[in-house]
Amino acid sequence: MMLRARWLLFAVAPLLVLAIFTLTPTPKPEATEAAGASESQGAAKRAEEELESAEELLAKMPPGLAAPDKKELAHQILGSAMNSTKDWRTLYGHIADSEDGDGYCGGVIGFCSGTKDMRILVESYTKEHPDNALAAYVPALRAVDGTDSHEGLGTGFVEAWQAESEKPAFRKAQDAVRDSMYFKPAVDLAKLDGLGTLGQFIYYDAMVFHGPGIDKNGFYEIRERVRGMIKTKAEGGKEKEYLDAFLDACRQAMTEAKADQDTSRIDTAQRAFLRDGNLTLRTPLVWKMYGETFRAS
Q: Which pLDDT score is estimated for 8?
């Protein structure tokens, strides 16, 4: 509605528009960034409150993507997007700097040293297992949080990560942080929006890729922005129409961040499922990722 009004203003009052643009000061970049962060922080806070107020309702809903077979399928699709493998359990020990500005990224969900989730993981793991090989790197992880720096980490940290990943306790810790920070909030919010299993996966993948942070184009900001433009199924809208718009927004955010970003996870996977009307993520399932074909039965 606001978009239509803006076009109408340009059509019937060009001189007024010119005056507005002439008289209105251009926001400084730092002010614009601060406003974007504030909006995203607000979106995250509102989503948190939404989840807290709906705990009893959510407990009565069908498991959807949280059902064991669907959760396994979700991580097979996610594994194909993250590391071109359905065998997502091989990713616990993976760690590298993909040079995307997030520092070291590793583990089953791509925890990053620059985006707080790796720090949270190692801190929580160290609390339960104080003698682990990663404990010595907690101060360095706190220092580099929010940057792409390797200071205080380096080869020793990489080797410690790989060594700990062989232990069931560290794998369990990765699963726990993944589920609490990414899987559960994404799936629960999708349920509140009236979305089926596919929609729940789309939210989950968006949460993983775009992050649960407060920056512009984070998951919470994208969700709130799309909901402001089109009704969810829970609001009486059409599920496919809403998911199409949500995928459009996610794809745009991907290419805004990196113009040559490969968008296979949307174009030849999620969008293909949606186009086929597979809102329940029924199997057998076939999808493509980076030109490679994957199947799940």
A: 29
CA 62, CA 31: separation in Å to the nearest integer? 44
Tell the burial category of 92 from Cβ atoms under 10 Å away from its Cβ (0-12, 13-18, 19+).
buried
pLDDT at 143 over 80: yes
Enter the tokens of residue 213: 């942070």
- The answer to whether the CB of 186 falls within 8 A of the CB of 207 is yes
This prediction has a pTM of 0.86
| Tokens standing for residue 240 | 């496919």
Q: Distance of CA 11 to CAs 1, 5, 23, 24, 27, Å?
A: 15, 10, 20, 20, 25
CA distances to 172, 215, 225, 230, 262 from 39, rounded to whole Å, are: 34, 9, 10, 19, 27
For the cut 80, the answer to whether the pLDDT of residue 152 exceeds it is yes
Distance CA 119, CA 247 (A): 29
Structure token digits, residue 279:
């809102």
Distance CA 186, CA 206 (A): 8
Question: Which DSSP string do the residues of 96-146 spell out, in sequence order?
Answer: EE-SSSS-EEETTTTEETTSSHHHHHHHHHHHH-TTSTTGGGHHHHHHHTT
- pLDDT tens per residue across span 175-217: 999 999 999 999 999 999 999 999 999 999 999 999 987 668 8
Q: In this predicted structure, which of 77-86, 96-105, 196-205 has the lowest mean pLDDT? A: 96-105
Neighbours of 11 (CB within 10 A): 9
Q: What is the phi/psi pair of residue 285, to 5°? A: -130, 135
